């Protein structure tokens, strides 16, 4: 098989050279394309709190496929297995509920760096940089409102929680000598009609101002909006308009989650719209099916358009790439590998586009040539380039990763 992969790549190299694309340069760029894998795919967003309750807060994981990680050791084992089947070097994105609490009850406003020291050590040992998230859902004090809650006691609880999470993220970034990106998403909203929209948003602004007051040099703050959540359909405090304005004014990163928009909106179009006003973007790439259903990322048109827009905007150094799906209905390792490879393929195809030539045609008013080249790109041998990338990275080529997952299921997961 290796010989066939090499032959196909050599032909692809010639084909792409004819349109002015250097495949070797693209492969080098792919080595610098680092995904932030989301830990919550391995266990359906349960986490490791001793006092953990059911998943709540406007989100839902569906399915009960056997083999979900039950503890921190199994989760780390599964993530390393997934990484071994994904070409390149990648990060790991942790939610606060995945701390190493060692069987002790630790409430959200009591969490500290010590509860993530073993993760920091694990990251160093495995060469896996860490990113982080505060966790406002699945808690007795979550309700419908957290940082926007008119009850000062509840609001202060979540402010303290988020401040502590920033300290943890800063410690992660310093230990790995690479800034840790901490994403802040809250579910706050109303199920039915409400009249206090301005009150809730002013409270959220005040909470964010307090949270971000202290500078943390080894972490980057990113804020994430949403259209609605389950049981919170009528109003979302942290809407896209709210967070876009806040990020532009206060210099935070802005998170674009592909599942958090109205079905008729294009997340790809947001990239060039907000980059003139924010320094950096964070992506949470998933696949919405009619709503924010967090299906496994595939190489569909919206995902391809998103990565193409990033490349066309010359924003490779201003965008960070995270995955955010949690499908409990299929093999979870398979979900990791399929979703990660799909994102990589979309980026590869975007990098293989002869965008300089296409852009010149557009500026010259040669619209039919633009459309012609974009259509021809769909049939170019990009898969041969991706297969070569996998081969050089010593991971299974094509669908052969299925065999490795089946072996892992038989040897490890089936014994849980």
Describe the 3D structure.
The protein is α/β, with parallel strands linked by helices. The strands form two sheets. An eight-stranded parallel β-barrel has the order 1-2-3-4-6-8-9-10, surrounded by five helices. It contains 14 helices and ten strands. The radius of gyration is 22 Å and the shape is globular. Helices cover 44% and strands 10% of the residues.
Beta-strand content estimate: 5-15%
- Please count the beta strands (DSSP E, at least 2 residues each): 10
Return the string of H and E elements: HHEHEHEHEEHEEHEHEHEHHHHH
Shape: globular
The low-confidence runs, each spanning 5 or more residues with pLDDT under 50, are none
Average pLDDT taken over every residue: 96
Helix-strand category: alpha/beta
Helix content: 40-55%
Question: Multimeric state of these chains?
Answer: single chain
Kindly report how far apart the N and C termini lie.
34 Å
Q: Helix segment count?
A: 14
Strand order of the largest sheet: 1-2-3-4-6-8-9-10
Main beta sheet: strand number and arrangement? Answer: 8 strands, parallel, barrel
Radius of gyration: 22 Å
In short:
This protein is an alpha/beta fold and 416 residues long. Helices cover 44% and strands 10% of the residues.
């Amino acid at each position: 098989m290796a010989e066939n992969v090499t032959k196909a790549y050599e032909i692809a190299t010639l084909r792409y050279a004819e349109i002015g694309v250097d495949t070797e340069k693209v492969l080098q760029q792919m080595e610098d394309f680092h995904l932030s894998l989301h830990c919550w795919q391995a266990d359906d967003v349960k986490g490791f709190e001793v006092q953990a309750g059911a998943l709540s807060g406007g989100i839902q994981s569906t399915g009960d496929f056997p083999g979900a990680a039950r503890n921190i050791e199994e989760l780390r084992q599964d993530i390393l297995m997934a990484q071994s089947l994904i070409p390149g070097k990648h990060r790991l994105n942790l939610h606060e509920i995945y701390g190493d609490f060692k069987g002790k009850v630790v409430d959200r406003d009591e969490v500290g760096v010590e509860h993530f020291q073993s993760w920091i050590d694990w990251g160093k040992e495995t060469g896996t940089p860490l990113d982080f998230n505060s966790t406002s859902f699945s808690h007795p004090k979550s309700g419908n409102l957290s940082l926007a809650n008119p009850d000062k006691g509840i609001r202060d609880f979540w402010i303290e929680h988020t401040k502590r999470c920033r300290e943890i993220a800063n410690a992660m970034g310093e230990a790995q000598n690479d800034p840790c990106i901490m994403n802040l998403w809250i579910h706050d909203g109303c199920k039915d009609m409400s009249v206090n929209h301005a009150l809730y948003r002013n409270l959220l602004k005040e909470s964010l101002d307090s949270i971000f007051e202290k500078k943390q040099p080894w972490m980057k703050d990113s804020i994430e909006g949403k259209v609605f959540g389950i049981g919170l359909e009528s109003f979302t405090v942290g809407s896209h308009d709210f967070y876009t304005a806040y990020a532009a004014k206060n210099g935070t990163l802005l998170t674009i989650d592909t599942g958090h928009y109205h079905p008729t909106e294009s997340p790809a179009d947001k990239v060039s719209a907000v980059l003139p006003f924010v320094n950096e973007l964070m992506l949470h790439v998933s696949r919405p099916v009619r709503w924010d259903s967090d299906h496994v990322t595939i190489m569909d048109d919206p995902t391809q358009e998103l990565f193409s827009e990033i490349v066309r905007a010359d924003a490779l150094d201003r965008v960070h790439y995270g995955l955010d799906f949690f499908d409990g209905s299929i093999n979870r390792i398979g979900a990791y590998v399929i979703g990660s490879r799909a994102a990589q393929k979309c980026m590869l195809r975007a990098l293989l586009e002869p965008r300089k030539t296409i852009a010149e045609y557009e500026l010259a008013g040669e619209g039919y040539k633009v459309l012609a080249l974009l259509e021809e790109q769909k049939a170019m041998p990009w898969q041969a380039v991706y297969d070569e990338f996998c081969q050089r990275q010593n991971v299974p080529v094509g669908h052969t990763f299925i065999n490795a997952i089946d072996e892992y299921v038989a040897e490890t997961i089936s014994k849980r």
